[in-house]
Amino acid sequence: MMSEKETPPETLPIRLLLVDDSAAFRGSMRTLLETQPRLTVLGEAGDGPTAMRLIGKLSPDVVIMDVIMPDQNGVEVTRQISARYPSVKVIALSMHAEDRFVTAMRSAGAVGYVLKDQVAEQLAAAVLAVAGGQVYFQRP
Known about the structure:
It contains 5 helices and 6 strands. By secondary structure, it is α/β, with parallel strands linked by helices.
């Protein structure tokens, strides 16, 4: 039973961190996501080490993680997030639909997978689903 002062979970803001090596793509995602009333983008990172620092500093609910990045790929970073911040949910973002990418991210701890060419149609729904405790693995 909820007291009068508690906010129902389905109306709480969902705090996001965007991780992609393309600043332009991060900007597009930010613009898209910030049109949704419950979604708040706390920050952006262009690489894994920056993402890990920002997660510790900002405490996002959901991290949207590019799978392929230079130096440290999204699979490695997702593994680190799952180990250090188990309450943070990770949605993989990739242009690759092959099972090996989906399986690698799922094994690393991702609870969602969205193809980059479907971001406009799928990303906000994926965020709402994983924030609500569901998994969201898009298939082509």
